[in-house]
Amino acid sequence: MSPVSLVRAPALAGSVPYAYAAVTAPGSLVFTAGACPLDDAGEVVAPGDHAAQARQVMANLVTALAASGARLSDVAKSTVYVAAADRQDLVAVWDVVREAFGDHDAPSTLLGVAMLGYPEQLVEVEAVAVLPA
């Protein structure tokens, strides 16, 4: 039996070639895949709009965490990837991410990158969470 349980979130697109999260034995840590700006059909939403994609990403991250038994307030660390050359685009995404986390200001890394995996994808957020006892 593997010490890692891969989590498929039925409420998110089933067409992606990866699990949305992984829980480690004895079930205390949750590692998410990068949440992408995909709708229920697996299509990238809001091409060209960093903030709108960030809102979809955070909604998808909440869903993936919930499927693992966790919430945003259980996140110990996140990484935010933004395909942009303009710092203002990074700031726009960061504002959406911080609003979603609210007062839970866990460590996070914000990165500007050249490109992300899906055509027209501008934002991706991955997280490590700790399941409540």
Roughly how many Å apart are the termini? 23 Å
Strand content: 25-35%
* Rg, Å, rounded: 14 Å
Count of helical segments? 2
What's the topology here?
Layout: E1 4-7, E2 21-24, E3 29-32, H1 50-67, E4 75-83, H2 87-101, E5 108-113, E6 123-130
Parallel strand pairs: 4-5
Antiparallel strand pairs: 1-2, 2-3, 3-6, 4-6
Helix pairs in contact: 1-2
Structural summary, described in words:
It is a single chain. The chain is an alpha+beta fold and about 130 residues long. The protein is about 25% helix and about 25% strand. It contains two helices and six strands. A six-stranded mixed sheet has the order 1-2-3-6-4-5, with helices on one face. Strand 4 (about 75-85), helix 2 (about 85-100) and strand 5 (about 110-115) form a beta-alpha-beta unit. Helix 1 runs parallel beside helix 2 (about 85-100).
In short:
With 133 residues, the protein is an alpha+beta fold. The chain is built from two helices and six strands, in the order βββαβαββ.
Question: Keywords for this structure?
Answer:
six-stranded mixed β-sheet, 133 residues, alpha+beta, 25% helix
